[in-house]
Amino acid sequence: MKETKNNFGKFGVVLAAAGSAVGLGNIWKFPYMIGENGGAAFLIVYLGCVLLFGIPLMTSEFYVGKSGLKNWRWIHGLTAVSSTLFFAFYLVVTGWCFEYLYLSIINATSGLCPTQLENTFQAFSNSIWMPLLWAVIAIVLTALIELAGVKSGIERANKTLMPLLLVMLLVMIIRGLTLPGSSAGLRFLLEPNFSKITPNLILSAMGQCFFSLSIGVGTLATYAHYMREEQDLPITSARVIGLDTLVAILAGAAIFPAVFALGINPTEGPELVFVTLPSMFGQMRAGYALQIAFFLLLSIAALTSTISLMEVELHFLQKTLKMSRIKGILLSSGVVLGLCLIALLYKPVFGWLDQLVSLYLLPFGGLVFAIYVGWRCPKDHVLRHMTPQGCPPFFGQVLYTLVRYFIPPTILLIFLQGIGAV
Ligand code: TRP
Hints:
With 422 residues, this protein is an all-alpha fold.
């Protein structure tokens, strides 16, 4: 039985799923991956991955959650575990964003040279107690929103935070583009360098697609449980993916023109956001306010993702273990914070979680959903849900074929290659 009164509204679910999808992956990871991988060439490969993997897998996850099939329980258990591991990793990085929001407000990074900024970041990310404090604050905020429930907590938070995020991005883009010399950054983003396309680039684009679209840890399936009966799955996926991709591209457009205008090297890797950008803001007029806006944006994007991660565990604890919502919130917060503490005390655990999540958990989750939907669920039922309303059955057929024949062997091949068997 579905609890109808608590279901998401029609656009509420799109915003909530987009809130989950739009996160550090879009604003922190995507710009530096573009920077490292030949600008628009990466973008084109990424868009290909979104079409071949993103839309079919997101629709499959939605399908599993929405139709509430009995034997999805074991997948549910699996996703509760993988989302917890993912949550611990994600919470640590969310804490970094909060720290930088705080540093921006007290104006602690202005006037520092890049080496000093680098040292600040290293010293902070290698310490234990401050990152832990921020992780606690992030999880308390997440828990409070969760406590308010699906419609008045999750839906309302996303409906307010997501438009705010878009407005802040637009302000940053306008500021960046009005700097002299910014067009070089735009060219860098839009001009494809096809010589950079290698099998490795395709692999990272695929990994980024899973990460950015929140595929594989059960978030989408959990949100789909609260969908209305008439919600169209492929159209919802297309909307969520459209928003996610838009934010990723806008983040690139907000960052690169300004980075180029100020003559900073764009291929800075994961430190782009925490080292390069503060240095960029430090040299900009109105940089103080923009830096606060940027880290606020990043923190909000991370928070709408942590909400969705906690909901996976909560839903499992409530539905399968019949726990009350408040007890579930306390238990999952405790477990995740415990894992965070381990990752902060033993730094290799953090790196290990990062690798485990991006290289194995997400593709493995995608594989499980694809096999389940493509091979275990009744074909007619799946096809009905995969065909967008008012479209010829052909669309559903294409999605189904990708889920059944293309995605499982491709992911398997990538796994085998990863462990050196092929
Ligand atoms: N999509 C999120 C981002 O871009 C990261 C993410 C991956 C995620 N899987 C998730 C977030 C599951 C929440 C739930 O940052």
